[in-house]
Amino acid sequence: MRILVTGTRGQVATALAECAQRRSHLELLALGRPALDLERHDEAEAVMIAARPDLIVNAAAYTAVDRAESEPAHAFAINRDGAATVAKAAARLAVPLIHLSTDYVFDGTKPVPYVETDPPNPLSVYGRSKHDGEQAVMAAHPSSIILRTSWVFSPFGTNFLKTMLRLGAERENLRIVSDQTGNPTSAIDLAETILNLAPQLSANPAAANGVYHLTNAGSTNWYGFAEAIFNASARHGSRRPRLEAISSTDYPTPARRPANSRLDTSAFTSRFGITPGRWENAVEETIARLTIAN
Known about the structure:
9 helices; two-stranded parallel sheet; 6-stranded parallel beta sheet; globular; 12 strands; Rossmann fold; alpha/beta
């Protein structure tokens, strides 16, 4: 089975490439700039069609949430128009598409975890561009699965976990927002789940249809996430800084973020028979790997 992944430098794309190496029955081709530029629509579509994949995973995205507020055209060019280009290529190839989206399509006012049928109401340019991307994907290629995920971390790239470790090594005290809740999610766990899902979709392309939520199990706030990170790193001998819980009003950002972005993953588990692991376990595994690497 040949899987084409759009993007090469993002956390999920990197994790997919790594995890695929352990699966002899899969051939994974990851394409990013300059070979695949989703802002050059006709060229990008031609490149994907020439690759002749059995399934496409669109992991390419503009993810700079705060910078998007001052670069809306760029965010929409990739997250909406680029996503549509990927979907059009998948439609021409008549292959399933897995498109990654985000918890930021919701406004965070719901007091319990969001389900797939809840109406989106994004607060930020990034959230609006990803929501528009979802709609563009389904319009261009209904044989698509949209996977909304959240708070992604990994040993790769830049993310909250790695930022906390860096700041914890530099500072005695850290102030962490405690009034935003969500589901921390391992890019490696996401990648493994996507690769487990791929053969199901290849055997039954009709199963690729709809929006699902996919995160690690369990939820917390940013302060609790930071606590778990430093508790795990302390077990490997790292110094633990003092943490102070603050409200989001004490840490203003250009982009508004949902106070509650917890996602209910029960529909995904019911449909595909795959149960996500706990986020705390994934944090422990990531910290252990980073410790060994250093």
